[in-house]
Amino acid sequence: MTKTITVIPGDGIGPDIIDSAIKILDKAGCDFNYEFVEAGLTALEKTGELLPEATLAAIKNNAVTLKGPLTTPVGEGFTSINVSLRKQFNLYANLRPVKSFKGTKARYDDIDIITVRENTEGMYSGLGQVTSADGNEAEAMSKVTRTGAERIVRFAYETARREGRKKVTAVHKANILKSTSGLFLKVAREIAKEYPEIESDEMIVDAVCMKLVMNPEQFDVIVTTNLFGDILSDLCAGLVGGLGMAPGANIGEDCAIFEAVHGSAPDIAGQNLANPSSVILASIQMLEYLEMGDKAKKIRAALADVIASGDRTTRDLGGSHGTTDFTQAVIDRL
């Protein structure tokens, strides 16, 4: 039976790079059906809503979604669309792999790190945000639960086991944030005992930032809380050439959303300039999630060869070509 994938083209450069990924998926013989729905500014203009009910229904019904970058209007009244999607579908695990590709402008050439970020709790979740009437004070709440910590740490170890990884590093700030980060670290130590075949490490977040810059090769799988994971995953993307080379997956018990992690880049929208690698890599994650590993490997190999050869690459990769040429170069190899 043919699998139906929900597709959210997104805003700005989103439609162009999503079109690139779909053409590549089709050329690889994935044989998907696609249900296209809107979210973000595009949806707001058409329906008056940032997340229309039809979009939410499609995400739920099809269980797997490929998403372009979305724009949340600046100002009050609506939190991040991505945060809203994670809460709506309890997408508790954010999986951000980064891997070096020969031919990029990255400073390192042997990076292979997975950041596993708790996606629904902690300081990033937006709980208890209050600003005083006079505008002089603001506060927000960070809440970490044992349930939330257990499932994200176990998800990290299961990911490590499945992919043959050797080490999991629990990243925290328990020396200062003794309650929230302290609970996370305590749970991480408990879960680590269930996986004796995998080396377990723990490290304070500021030390991790320094060591990622100085000696990133020492890291394998990183697991951490929401805010720290948001920051560290972008830092890791910088090790392999930037957000244009980093995909993201938001995974829950019943559904998953795979996405380009960069912004919508409205300044180059519609100009055939964007590098589609992030969403192509997200589609590879999606194939792995669907246990279509053979197709995932073929697309990754084709993408890697295009970047390494410099054949029709985009400006950020040192070339002079656009999205369509880059996409065709990948398709030619497939």
From TrEMBL:
<dbReference type="GO" id="GO:0006099">
    <property type="term" value="P:tricarboxylic acid cycle"/>
</dbReference>
<dbReference type="GO" id="GO:0000287">
    <property type="term" value="F:magnesium ion binding"/>
</dbReference>
<dbReference type="GO" id="GO:0004449">
    <property type="term" value="F:isocitrate dehydrogenase (NAD+) activity"/>
</dbReference>
<dbReference type="InterPro" id="IPR024084">
    <property type="entry name" value="IsoPropMal-DH-like_dom"/>
</dbReference>
<comment type="similarity">
    <text>Belongs to the isocitrate and isopropylmalate dehydrogenases family.</text>
</comment>
<dbReference type="GO" id="GO:0006102">
    <property type="term" value="P:isocitrate metabolic process"/>
</dbReference>
<dbReference type="InterPro" id="IPR019818">
    <property type="entry name" value="IsoCit/isopropylmalate_DH_CS"/>
</dbReference>
<dbReference type="GO" id="GO:0051287">
    <property type="term" value="F:NAD binding"/>
</dbReference>
<protein>
    <submittedName>
        <fullName>Isocitrate dehydrogenase (NAD+)</fullName>
    </submittedName>
</protein>
<keyword id="KW-0560">Oxidoreductase</keyword>
<dbReference type="Pfam" id="PF00180">
    <property type="entry name" value="Iso_dh"/>
</dbReference>
<feature type="domain" description="Isopropylmalate dehydrogenase-like">
    <location>
        <begin position="4"/>
        <end position="330"/>
    </location>
</feature>
